[in-house]
Design brief:
Layout: H1 2-37, E1 51-55, E2 61-65, E3 68-69, H2 81-90, H3 102-115, H4 125-134, H5 141-157, H6 160-170, E4 177-178, H7 180-188, H8 197-206, H9 219-235, H10 241-246, H11 264-276, E5 284-288, H12 293-309, E6 317-323, E7 329-333, H13 358-367, E8 375-376, E9 399-400, H14 401-406, H15 410-420, H16 422-431, H17 454-466, E10 468-469, E11 485-486, H18 489-505, E12 518-523, E13 529-536, E14 539-546, H19 561-575, H20 612-618
Parallel strand pairs: 1-5, 3-4
Antiparallel strand pairs: 1-2, 6-7, 6-14, 8-9, 10-11, 12-13, 13-14
Helix pairs in contact: 1-5, 2-8, 2-9, 4-5, 4-6, 8-9, 12-19, 13-15, 13-16
Length: about 625
Amino acid sequence: MIAERLKAGLIRHRLLIGAAAGALLAVVLLLAWLGSNLPISRALEPLPSRAIVLLDAQGKPFARRGAYKEAPVVVRTLPPYVPAAFVAIEDRRFYHHLGIDLLGTARAAWVNSRAHRTVQGGSTITQQLAKNAFLGPERSLRRKGQEALIALWLELRLSKDEILARYLSSIYFGDGVYGLGAAARHYFGKPPERLSIGEAAILAGMVKAPVDLDPVDHPAAARRRARLVLEAMVETKAITRAQAEAAADVAIPPARAALPVGGYFADWISPQVKSAFDGAAYGEVRAPTTLDSRLQRRAEQAVARGLAEAGRARIGQAALVAMRPDGRVVAMVGGRDYRRSPFNRAVQARRQPGSAFKLFVYLAALRDGATPENLVVGDPVTIGGWTPSNYEGGGGRDLTIRDAFAQSNNIIAARVYQQAGGPEVVRAARDLGIVSPLREDDATLALGTAETSLLELTAAYAAVASGKMPVRPYGRPRTTPIATADMDTAERAALYDLLGAVVEEGTGRAARLPQRAYGKTGTTQDYRDAVFVGFTGDLVVGVWVGNDDHSPMNRVVGGGPPARIWRDFMASGLKAGLIARDRPPEPRVLRPPPGEPEFEPPAPRRESHVPKWLRRLFGL
């Protein structure tokens, strides 16, 4: 009997030893697997892409995109109180455990059970490093087991200072900032080696809740948390009571400008900037752009005033884009309020330009020999079952091309389109830079029924202003010019004549300025869209108003709110000296005065060179 009991006990003893040996072997094998498969320096690696700080044309930052991380810190180069602040508040027994603090875990469990909520965390600094560097955000017992094993492996492979350096170099500090090096520069404008005791306490306190304890957005909460850190540092003998009291009221300067992440222009240009600076690296990239913040402020103000003055016009949104004649975008407003709606109506929205498209219809006629003074029959016309009508309804009197364009006569525009031909109109639009789909066989194209973007349409008008075509909008300084062709000087002079008549005598009179201005109004069916696009001096601007759901406005036309917003913006820019001065307006000038080099007078045309359809249509 006794012998059998001894035998059974021996068997159980051997089984326990075998089980323990098996478990130990499994742990050893797992640790060996971790060593061969996990990159031990992952926490020290840079982020996949650097943070980008966008600079305006004057070199001032106006937006920041992406996460920010600096090079890893070295613990021995830091003031002793800096790492001590993190150890005191996050893991007091860091230098006395092997990655897993059973005593600390038990204490945290007891405190949390008493409070019926999570008051203390049980994870060590090593476990936090394991979680942040190698594991996802999953919260489960399985993941906690993985975290503990990785922490044990880290403790066996690295020294305590190496673990702490990896932790400090990778932890998140809110506002897209990772690592102590980036946090010190972001919040205090200095490297981590120069942090004061109070600043170190602020940063160490943020680890618990980086957003809620952000010292810029929540300074009171950040200071309360910092005082807890300072008390913990006193208890761990990292600092004296006198040092803690002296550091309690730390100043929090706006070290880095409180730059927005987004903005209509920033959203538009960021993909181009990111592709140019793609790749993992520390720090941030300061990328110059073409934005002129002075004009941008005036654009935002003009749009806001225009919408406020619209009253009961039922205008939900507005957009504005301003560029130099070469396509350099200097201001962009994509909507009423970016924070409420980041959708960029200057770039992303595809809307009908209405009569603003007539620029290309009349350019096609000019290319075939027409002149602004040619007379066109105003009787109604039907093209393929479509009968256009004028804004005031019915037919109309015969008008010169100049007056028809200035008054935005739809019937005459349709006649000109019919005679010039759809393919030639489309070619004219393509030459000036329109890339949106256009149907050559659709006569309604004459009245701007093809959708395009405000940015694209404004660039086409910039081609007229510059005499180079096409003009491609750009937001980053160009290093190489794009291929362009010179516009025919006679055609350009005639377009200037037509566009000037719109502002001085036609539908765009609300856009008149103390100097020569050129532009075209556009209004779509049922008043769903209204635009004004034009230029003066060295600035080309397009303005659109409408509703995102395409609902009609209250009889809003391109010569109304869009033209007034355009004039308000241009007048403000002229007053500030941000737009080149030009001559005062001179109505009905077919050729520039002597000595003006912009255009050469058109060469005299012989009768035999005028096409038959023009002689018939214009009564030549």
